[in-house]
Design brief:
Helix content of chain A: over 70%
Oligomer: heterodimer
Order of helices and strands of chain B: HHHH
CATH class of chain B: Mainly Alpha
Number of domains of chain A: 1
Number of helices of chain A: 9
Distance between the termini of chain B: 55 Å
Largest interface: A-B, 53 and 44 residues
Number of strands of chain B: 0
Number of helices of chain B: 4
Largest sheet of chain A: none
Structural class of chain A: mainly alpha
Helix content of chain B: over 70%
Radius of gyration of chain B: 19 Å
Largest sheet of chain B: none
Distance between the termini of chain A: 30 Å
Number of domains of chain B: 1
Chain lengths: 227, 113
C-alpha cells in the first residue's frame, strides 16, 4: 500500500512537470477585473475588490473555515494538560522595547486593514500583523495579563459576531437596491470612502483574524511543554 | 517552461515526498507547509508578467490580480489547517506520548482491544 502511494505521487509529479513543460496556458482577459473594479466597485486595490465584492462568497466560507479552526483549537486544547503561562522578561528596558514594538504592530495592523482597499494590504494581512503585535506585547506583559485584558474587552464574543456581520451584508447585498446594486456607494477611486462595503468588511474581517490568531497563539503557548 | 514554475513544482515535490516518507507527524506537517508554499509560488508566478502591482492608481500596465486574490484564500485556509492539525498532534502526543505515525497506530490498536 505504502509503495503504491509513493508510486502514485511520483507519477503525478512527473505528469505535473510534463504538463508545465508542454502545455501553454492561454492568458485570460486580465483587463476584465480592472475595468469591472473601476465601474462597479471603486476600490483602488483590485485584489481587495475581487475578494470583498466579486468573490465575496469565497471570503465568507474562508472565514467560516477560520472560525472552525479557532473553535477546534479551543475545543482540543482544553483536553491537553497546561504547562504554564508566558512570563514577562526581567529587564525593564527589554519590556519597554517590546511594549512599544507591540503597540506599533497593533496600530500598523489596524491601519493596513482599514486602508486595504486603497493600497497593498487588506483585512487578512492587517489582522496577521496586529496579532504579531499582540504576541510581542505578550512577551512584554505576560500572557495572563494580556488574556485578562482580552476577556475584559469581550474580544472573543465580538470576534464571533463578525460572521453575522458578513451574513447580514451578503443577505442585504442581494436584496434589490442593496449593497450590490449598480453604483451603490462606489465612490471615487482612491477615496477613503469607496469600494462599497470595503471599510466595514476590511475592519470586521481584520478584527476576526486578529483575535482568532491571538487565541490560537495563546492556547498553544499555554501548552508549549506538553509535546 | 518558466524556471520559476519549475522550481515551484520542485518545492511541491519536496513537500509531498516529506509527507509520504517521514513517519513523524510534526515533520509531515512541515512537509504540508512546504507543499503549500510551492502551490502559492506557482500561482503567483503564473499571474506575474513583470509589470506593476494591481492598483488602479498606477498606470495601466499591471499584473493579473485574480491569482493573487485566490492565493489570499489559500494562505488563510492553510493557516487554519496548520493550526488545527497542530492541536491534533499535540493532543495525540499528550495521550500516547509519541508523534511517530507507526507507533501511534500500534498504541491506538492496543488501546482498542
Amino acid at each position: 500500500m505504502r509503495k503504491f502511494f509513493i508510486f502514485t505521487i511520483i507519477f503525478s509529479l512527473i505528469f505535473l512537470l510534463s504538463f508545465a513543460y508542454f502545455v501553454k496556458i492561454p492568458s485570460h482577459n486580465a483587463n476584465h477585473y480592472p475595468l469591472a473594479t473601476q465601474m462597479y466597485d471603486g476600490s483602488a486595490n483590485i485584489v481587495s475588490a475581487i475578494y470583498l465584492n466579486f468573490r465575496l462568497y469565497d471570503t465568507l466560507f474562508e472565514l467560516l473555515i477560520f472560525s472552525v479552526a479557532v473553535s477546534g483549537v479551543i475545543f482540543y486544547s482544553k483536553r491537553i494538560r497546561e504547562s504554564g503561562e508566558i512570563v514577562p522578561d526581567k529587564s525593564f528596558l527589554v519590556r519597554l522595547e517590546l511594549f512599544i514594538f507591540g503597540i506599533a504592530g497593533i496600530v500598523w495592523g489596524g491601519y493596513t486593514a482599514l486602508t486595504g482597499h486603497l493600497q497593498a494590504g487588506g483585512a487578512f494581512s492587517g489582522g496577521a500583523i496586529g496579532a504579531s503585535g499582540v504576541v510581542v506585547l505578550t512577551l512584554a506583559l505576560g500572557s495572563a495579563k494580556v488574556h485578562t485584558l482580552a476577556e475584559k474587552m469581550k474580544l472573543e464574543f465580538l470576534e464571533n459576531l463578525v460572521i453575522f456581520v458578513m451574513l447580514i451584508y451578503v443577505i442585504f447585498g442581494n436584496i434589490h437596491g442593496g449593497f450590490f446594486s449598480p453604483g451603490f456607494c462606489v465612490g471615487k477611486v482612491g477615496n477613503f470612502f469607496s469600494g462599497r462595503g470595503a471599510l466595514l468588511l476590511n475592519s470586521s474581517i481584520g478584527f476576526k483574524v486578529f483575535v482568532g490568531a491571538w487565541i490560537i497563539f495563546y492556547e498553544f503557548s499555554k501548552r508549549k511543554e506538553s509535546i | 517552461m518558466n524556471a520559476e514554475v519549475f522550481f515551484s513544482i520542485v518545492i511541491m515535490a519536496i513537500g509531498i515526498t516529506i509527507v509520504a516518507i517521514k513517519r513523524d507527524l510534526m515533520v509531515k506537517l512541515i512537509g504540508v507547509g512546504i507543499m503549500e508554499t510551492g502551490v502559492t509560488l506557482s500561482f503567483v508566478v503564473l499571474g506575474y508578467n513583470g509589470k506593476l502591482p494591481p492598483l488602479l492608481t498606477l498606470p495601466v500596465e499591471r499584473v493579473d490580480p485574480l491569482p493573487q486574490a485566490l492565493i489570499i484564500t489559500s494562505i488563510v485556509v492553510g493557516f487554519a489547517i496548520s493550526a488545527l492539525s497542530l492541536v491534533f498532534v499535540l493532543y495525540l502526543s499528550s495521550v500516547y506520548h509519541t508523534t511517530d505515525a507507526v507507533k501511534l497506530k500500534k498504541r491506538i490498536k492496543k488501546d482498542e482491544r
